[in-house]
Inverse folding.
């Protein structure tokens, strides 16, 4: 059973890694098609430079592959850093290359009585999205918040989250937290019967 959409709300780099899950023992890619990538980008629109509606139809497998590559580099890097280990050099190099492939140019404009800036990137859609995501990974990796990165404690879950509350143990209290509580309840009542 594939979930409809991945959880969001963590730093972008964590949300990206969390587009892969394990469900009923199988690894599931919730961003396995260009359409699912578009849906994820739409849900992240307030935090990413959103492609235009016209570009939606241009999303293809090469765009998806560029994003998947950044996701893999991000996942490998976070896995090492989370454990206090040196990340693989090729993963860091991959994140750097993704950013270099579509460097961000900060464009200033006047809007609503003040100067605002937006980042514009040249190139094909997938390369631009991959660069945005690699930059988000770089920002998280250099942020002190990285110290609070945790893996969900539900035994069948692989999701990551930032534990801003030190007592937080699950990626989603409503999903994994509830699953653990129900299992404990069942175990207590099974042994007492």
């Amino acid at each position: 059973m594939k979930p409809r959409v991945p959880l969001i709300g963590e730093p972008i780099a964590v949300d990206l890694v969390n587009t892969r899950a394990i469900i009923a023992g199988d690894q599931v890619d919730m961003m396995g098609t260009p359409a699912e990538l578009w849906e994820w980008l739409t849900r992240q629109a307030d935090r990413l430079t959103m492609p235009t509606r016209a570009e939606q139809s241009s999303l293809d497998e090469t765009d998806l592959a560029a994003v998947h590559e950044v996701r893999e580099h991000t996942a490998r890097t976070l896995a090492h850093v989370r454990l206090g280990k040196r990340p693989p050099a090729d993963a860091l190099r991959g994140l750097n290359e993704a950013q270099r492939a579509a460097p961000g140019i900060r464009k200033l404009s006047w809007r609503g009585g003040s100067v605002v800036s937006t980042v514009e990137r040249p190139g094909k859609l997938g390369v631009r999205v991959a660069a945005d995501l690699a930059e988000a990974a770089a920002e998280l990796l250099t942020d002190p918040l990285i110290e609070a990165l945790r893996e969900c404690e539900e035994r069948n879950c692989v999701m990551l989250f930032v534990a801003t509350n030190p007592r937080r143990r699950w990626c989603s209290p409503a999903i994994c937290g509830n699953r653990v509580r129900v299992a404990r309840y069942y175990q207590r009542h099974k042994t007492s019967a």
Summary: The chain has one domain: 12-192. Residues 107 and 118 are 5 Å apart (CA to CA).
